[in-house]
Every structure is written in C-alpha cells, then in structure tokens.
C-alpha cells in the first residue's frame, strides 16, 4: 500500500512538477526553463478567465450547498413523517455522475426544449429563461445544477451532527423561551463545526475538480464564459498537445487547493483534539 501511494501519487506529482519547468510540448523533455511555463500561463487570458470563473463558482457553490444542506438537515431533524424516504430523495442526486447531471440540466435549461418552451406552451409567450446560452449567466446554470447534486451530501453530514446534539439542550432552550433561530445561530452551528468543516473541504475538492458538468452542459461556452481550470488543463494536455503548460496549470491548482484546505484541516484537527481533552 505504501509503495502504491509513493509511486502513484507522490511519483506522479513530482513528475508533473518536473515537466512544468521544462519546454515539453507533445512529449516530455529533460531540459530546464525555470518558471517560463508559469510566466506563459499567467499571461494566458483564457487561464486567468478560468481562475475568475472558478472563484465565482466556488463561492456561490459552497455557500449555496451549505445553506441548502443545513436547511434540509434541520427540516429532517424535526422527525418528519417519511424521514427515510426524504433522506434517500435528497441524497440520491449525489449518487449520479456529474455527466448525467449535466446532461439532464442541459435539457431542462435548453430554451428550445426545457423550461422556457414549457412555459411558452402554457401561454406565457414572453417568458424567457435562456441562461445556458447567455454569456453573462451561463456560469450560474453550472452552479444551479451542481448545487442540486451536492446539497444532499451536506445534508447527510450535518444531519449526523444534529443527531449528536443532546435533546436536553432543546428542552432547556424552550423552557427559557429562546427563539429557535437563536438556538441554531448561537449554539447549534458552533457545535456543528466539525461537520461543517468536513463538508467545506469536500465541497472545495468538488470545486477544483469541476470538469464533467461543464463539458456536459456548456463545453466551456458560450465562448469561454464557463471555462474552468480543469477544462483548460485537459484541453492543453490533449487538444493542444502542450503538456508543459498543462503541468504548470496543474501545479498552480494543487498549490491553491493546499493553501485553502490545509489551514482549515489544521484548525479542524485542533478543535477535535481540544474537544477530546
């Protein structure tokens, strides 16, 4: 197992880093050009746009998933009828592949096939919902589709956290007349920190890996409106046969993820350790 980790993960990471400082295009080369590929990368307007899109997508996706997932978890935690069925329904989208999700939402949002056409057939002739073909709004359709898919995972994580809260806390809050929203804001959410941090890290990984849904829904378009780093890397790796630039982009993406996730992971670990003392 240790050998597999070293060869498959650490080895490929080191190889990618080595290629990123070479002039490799179609095939790897042994030369050394320093940070030349990184300089070219950050002069590439398409790469800068992909980073901007990823930042916008990441903020909206993570916030929406956390909010929707928490609301679903809080709803199910009320011991509602058919709880088992509801948990399955809410979690089921996460079991689908991003490709399947993307294709389904592409049909739903297609102005000629989906919501817009249905509404116009119902008599609303001026109804317009063409975000998926609008450069200014196409990115938000990716957010919509992926939030629908991933919110169930957040719900499951937060529900497990809610079920771990002592029922006596709620009884005491009701006796003291504390509003429910205040209990959630001041007591429950801080207690859910381990579950929230886990959900955040999983969602952050999904953000960085975003590729399938974009390809299935928009192919990065209209134009480059929904271009993301993973698609940029795949295009330059296979479509444009420039593995040096693609490797540099991969390393930048990895460093970005580590810079965001590592401090959160450290803080979560410390919080858990303090809780065990």
TrEMBL record:
Task: Work out whether the entry's keyword set contains Glycoprotein.
Answer: no
The UniProt family comment states: Belongs to the binding-protein-dependent transport system permease family.
Q: What Gene3D superfamilies has UniProt attached to this entry?
A: MetI-like (1.10.3720.10)
**Domain ABC transmembrane type-1 intervals:** 51-264
| Record's protein name | Sugar ABC transporter permease
What keywords tag this UniProt record?
A: Cell membrane, Membrane, Transmembrane, Transmembrane helix, Transport
Residue spans crossing the bilayer: 54-76, 88-108, 138-162, 183-208, 243-267
Location comes to:
Cell membrane
Q: Which organism is it from?
A: Pseudoduganella chitinolytica
* UniProt membrane topology term: Multi-pass membrane protein
First-listed, main subcellular location of the protein, grouped into a coarse class: membrane
């Amino acid at each position: 197992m240790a050998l597999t980790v070293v060869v498959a993960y650490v080895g490929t990471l080191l190889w990618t880093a080595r290629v990123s400082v070479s002039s490799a295009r179609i095939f790897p080369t042994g030369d050394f050009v320093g940070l030349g590929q990184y300089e070219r990368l950050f002069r590439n307007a398409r790469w800068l746009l992909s980073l901007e899109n990823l930042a916008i997508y990441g903020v909206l996706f993570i916030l929406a998933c956390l909010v929707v997932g928490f609301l679903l978890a809080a709803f199910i935690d009320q011991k509602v009828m058919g709880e088992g069925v509801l948990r399955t329904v809410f979690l089921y989208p996460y079991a689908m592949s991003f490709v399947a999700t993307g294709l389904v939402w592409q049909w739903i949002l297609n102005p000629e096939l989906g919501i817009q056409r249905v509404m116009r057939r119902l008599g609303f002739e001026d109804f317009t919902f063409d975000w998926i073909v609008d450069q200014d709004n196409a990115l938000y359709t990716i957010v919509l589709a992926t939030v629908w898919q991933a919110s169930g995972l957040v719900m499951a994580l937060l529900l497990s956290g809610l079920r771990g809260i002592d029922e006596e806390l709620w009884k005491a809050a009701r006796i003291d007349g504390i509003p429910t929203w205040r209990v959630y804001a001041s007591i429950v959410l801080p207690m859910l920190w381990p579950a929230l941090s886990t959900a955040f890290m999983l969602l952050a990984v999904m953000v960085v890996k975003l590729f399938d849904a974009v390809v299935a829904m928009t192919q990065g378009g209209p134009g480059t409106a929904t271009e993301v780093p993973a698609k940029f890397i795949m295009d330059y790796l296979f479509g444009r046969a420039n593995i040096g630039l693609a490797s540099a982009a991969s390393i930048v993406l990895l460093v970005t993820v580590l810079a965001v996730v590592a401090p959160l992971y450290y803080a979560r670990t410390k919080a858990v350790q303090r809780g065990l003392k």
